Amino acid sequence: MDSEDDMYDKNDVDLSEDFYSEDDDTATASDEDDSEGDDLIMEAAEKPLKPQKENYAILSEADIGELQKKDITVVSDALKISEGSASIILQHHNWSEPNNFIHDTWFCNQEKIRKAVGLPEETTPIPDVTVRIKCRICLEECPRDKPSCGAAVVKEMIKKHVDDDDAISWQKYGRYLVRSYVEAKQNKIKWCPAPGCDYAVKFDIGRIGTSGISNDVKCDCSYGFCWSCAEEAHRPVDCATVAKWILKNSAESENTNWILVNSKPCPKCKRPIEKNHGCMHMTCTPPCNFQFCWLCLGAWSEHGERTGGHYACNRYETAKQNGAYEVTERQREMAKNSLERYTYYYERWAANQKSRQKALADLHQMQAVQLDQIREKQCQIHGQVMFIIDAWKQIVECRRVLKWTYAYAYYLPEREHVKREFFEYLQGEAESGLERLHQCAEKELEIYLNEGLSKEFDEFRTKLAGLTSVTKNYFENLVQALENNLEDVDSKGGCSKVAGAGSKSFGEGCSKAST
C-alpha cells in the first residue's frame, strides 16, 4: 500500500483490543492436520512488512522547465552556442541526455547536425529587418512574410520579434518546449492522466521490481495512477489483470451470457424473448406475433389442457427425459454459473468503488469545513484533530485496494485451493477491519461534530487512531501477500484447511461495501 499519507503506527497509541477486535467465531480444528494448516496460514499472514519506498517525484511545469534549462545550459556551455541553438539541437534529437549527446553524437557529426537542424553561425548577428530577411545559411534575401530557407528559428530570434503585447504567444512557445521535453522522455517523465492536471511525474524506473517498490504514484492533484499502464492506481493487482478486468467489464460477452440465461429465441423470428412472470403461453412482439410454448417452443395452437395447460408442458417433460434438451440445458447452466460468478465479483468491485468515491467526498468535506468545526467545539489545536484526516485517507486507500482484490479473486484459479483459502482469510480480515474503521469515522464522529464539548473525545481519538493503524496493517499484509502471488503458503508446503473468521467460500461470508 502506498505510504504517502502519514498514518499512526500501532505502537504510538495504547489500545484495547475492544477497539478493533471481534469475537472469534472460528471453531477449534478437531484434527491435527487442520490445526497445522491454520498455523501455516496465520504464520504467513502475520509476517512483518517492509515499508513502502518512494520512487517518484511530482513536477510542475516550472520544475520541468528547470530540468530542461539545465540540459540546455550543459550543451550551450560545452559547444559555445546560444541557449536557443542548444534547445533546437536537443529538440531535434528528442532531448537526449546532454553529456551523452555531446560525446557520442555531436563531435562525430557536427557539420551534419548543423545542416539537419538549420543551425546558424553564432558569429552572425540577428538582423533588424523590416521588409526583407537575409538568410544566414543560403545568404539569399526573401520577403519577411514568405521565408523559405531551412534556417532554424531559434529562441533568441523569436523573442526579439515578439511584441510586448504578444506575451501570450511567448508563453505558448515556452509551454510547447516544456511539453516536447516531457513527450520525448516518456520512459522517465509522464504527464498525470487526470483531466485538467498540468503536473508530471518523474519516475525512477531503475527501481521497478525492487522489493517494496510500487508502480502506483499519487499526483499532487490527488489522482493516483499506475506508471506502467496509466490506468488508475491498482496495487496490488498487476497491469495485465487490470486490462483483462476492464475489457471484461466493457465487453459483450457477459451480455451474451445474460441473454442465454434469461431469454429464449422466438421459434419463428429468432429474436430473444425474456419471460419474467406468468404462464407458459408466450406471444412475440409485432410484427411477428407468433404464439408459442415457453418450455418446448412449439406452436401454442398445438397446446391445451391435454398437454398440461398454461403452466406446464407434457411434451417438454417427455422430451427432456429422453435427453432432447440436454445440450441446450447444459449450455444455459454453464452460462448461468459464469454470469453469477462474474456478477458476484463485479458487484463487490463496483460497491467498493462507489464507497471510495463517497469516502473521498467525505474527506474533502472534512478538510474544508468539518475539521475546524470539531476543533472549535472540542477545544483542540490543529495537530490534535489530524488523526481524523489520517483515518479518512486510510479509508479511501483501503477501499481502492479492496476493490481491486475482487478483480484478483475473479482470475484466481479455482483449483488453487490453498491460495484461495489464504487469500480469502487475508481479504476477510482486511475487510472486517475496514468496515469497523469506516463505521467509526462515519457514525461515531458525528457525535463530536454535532454536540458540544465532550469528555470522551480523547478516548475517541485513541480508538480511531488505533483502528486506523490496525486497518493499515491488515491491508499491508494483504497487499504484500498478493504481490508475492500468495507464495507464503506454497513455501510452507501447503495446507488443507483454513480456520479463521476471515475465511469464506464463494457466495457467502463476504459483505458488500457500505456506501
TrEMBL record:
It holds the Pfam family IBR_1. Keywords: Metal-binding, Repeat, Transferase, Ubl conjugation pathway, Zinc, Zinc-finger. SUPFAM superfamilies: RING/U-box (SSF57850). Residues 14-41 have a biased composition (Acidic residues). Residues 1-47 are annotated as: Disordered. InterPro entries: Ariadne, E3_UB_ligase_RBR, IBR_dom, TRIAD_supradom. PROSITE patterns: TRIAD. GO terms for molecular function: ubiquitin protein ligase activity; zinc ion binding. Its EC number is 2.3.2.31. Transmembrane segments: none annotated. Its cofactor is Zn(2+). It comes from the Eukaryota. Residues 99-317 form the RING-type domain. It catalyses: [E2 ubiquitin-conjugating enzyme]-S-ubiquitinyl-L-cysteine + [acceptor protein]-L-lysine = [E2 ubiquitin-conjugating enzyme]-L-cysteine + [acceptor protein]-N(6)-ubiquitinyl-L-lysine. Belongs to the RBR family. Ariadne subfamily. PANTHER family: RBR FAMILY RING FINGER AND IBR DOMAIN-CONTAINING. This is RBR-type E3 ubiquitin transferase. The lineage of its organism: Eukaryota, Viridiplantae, Streptophyta, Embryophyta, Tracheophyta.
